[in-house]
Amino acid sequence: MKYVKQDSIIYSDSFSSYSTIKEYFSIHKKVNHSLHFVDPVTRVHTNTIEGNWNGIKLTLPLRKRTKKLIGLQLIRFMIKRENPEDFLDKLLSYLK
């Protein structure tokens, strides 16, 4: 995978498209949403990423969701979410 380290822990639901993830990453933890939204044993869930993606979609117009712009828009979203009061200062500190 181009942007994710091979030793990353991947969390997903049990959607069939994710069945080959274990071929690329050493640890793949999943939750079966037909049984639970949070696995009662492993505590695995996808609520965080689903909430973040929903927040991105609410704040990012469709016309800015292009391959060319999405990286910058995701960085902007993450910095602004973590630093709502001093977004510009924090952004500039990362650019130094």
UniProtKB/TrEMBL annotation:
The lineage of its organism: Eukaryota, Fungi, Fungi incertae sedis, Microsporidia, Tubulinosematoidea. This is ISXO2-like transposase domain-containing protein. It holds the Pfam family DDE_Tnp_IS1595. It comes from the Eukaryota. Residues 2-57 form the ISXO2-like transposase domain. It comes from Anncaliia algerae PRA339. PANTHER family: DDE_TNP_IS1595 DOMAIN-CONTAINING PROTEIN, SI:DKEY-17M8.2.
